[in-house]
Amino acid sequence: MPQTVLVTGASSGIGAATARLFSAQGFSVFGTSRSATPAALNGVRMLTLDVNSDDLVRACVKEVLSESGKLDILVNNAGFALNGAAEETTIDEAREQFDTNFFGVVRMTHAVLPGFRQAGAGKIITIGSLAGLMAIPFNAFYCATKFALEAYMEALWYEVAPFGIAVSLIEPGFVRTGISHSSKTPRAPLSTYDGPRSRSEEAVRRAVEDGLSPEKVAKAVLNAAKSRAPKLRYRVGPAARWLPRLRDAVPWDFFASGVRKTFALDGQG
């Protein structure tokens, strides 16, 4: 009997690539989208889900269990980017970012853990980011959610291992998805940040265009899912592997000057 996997945020990008790959590998795949009428994915049962709602999360997991009879793997992927200076981002905007990117993962995890504990098995795989390993200018709250996932998943790894449950974080560098085009911005931007903000956004856009394919990230997810002893962390792509090591190996001023140059923070604006 094939294993059942639930992938949140499966309408595009990493989530869609992951759902398609699992389906091609013979898994029974459920994907979620916030759309009331999710676009069809070949071999994937698409469900409507807003991970910001406790009730909808519980209902989604219940529906998967009702249709499939079991759930073996949860892939937490749903999220969005919030681009803007920390000062110009309101508390409500920051809270919305955390509610989806961090607490959405917590909600999904809470919903599947009782069944996983009862079964004495299960895998929780969460899409983290290079942005959870080092901060990106003008993405303070997006990075903060990814840093928070690092701590949450590491603590969870210790807590649920005795029940036979595996926890993994996938940490890719920049990925060629539409996240930069669909990102949200503060509703009341401050003109003093216009120059560096626009240059930083352009640097991120170029990095995304030159980034990893979603399919490469999906392969890392599949590797974690198929492993008998999954690792806690899977860094995907050269940037995710060497940039955090470089930051820890060189003086901070040297590393920070490189970041400022990369994102053109000191240019004319």
In a nutshell, what does this entry contain?
With 269 residues, this protein is of the alpha/beta class. The protein contains 9 helices and 7 strands.
Tell me about this structure:
- By secondary structure, this protein is an alpha/beta fold.
- The protein has a single domain (4-194, 212-240), classed as NAD(P)-binding Rossmann-like Domain (Rossmann fold, 3-Layer(aba) Sandwich), CATH 3.40.50.720.
- The protein contains 9 helices and 7 strands; from the N terminus they run E-H-E-E-H-E-H-H-E-H-E-H-H-E-H-H.
- The protein has a 7-stranded parallel sheet with strand order 3-2-1-4-5-6-7, sandwiched between helices.
- The model has no long low-confidence stretch (mean pLDDT 95).
Overall shape: globular
* CATH classification class: Alpha Beta
Order of the strands making up the biggest sheet: 3-2-1-4-5-6-7
Please give the number of β-strands: 7
CATH topology: Rossmann fold
One letter per element, helices H and strands E, the order comes to: EHEEHEHHEHEHHEHH
Record the SSE blueprint:
Blueprint (H helix, E strand, L loop, with lengths): L3 E4 L5 H12 L3 E6 L10 E5 L5 H15 L4 E4 L14 H11 L1 H17 L2 E6 L12 H21 L4 E8 L21 H16 L4 H13 L6 E4 L1 H12 L2 H11 L7
Parallel strand pairs: 1-2, 1-4, 2-3, 4-5, 5-6, 6-7
Helix pairs in contact: 1-7, 2-4, 3-5
What features would you highlight for this structure?
269 residues, alpha/beta, Rossmann fold, 9 helices
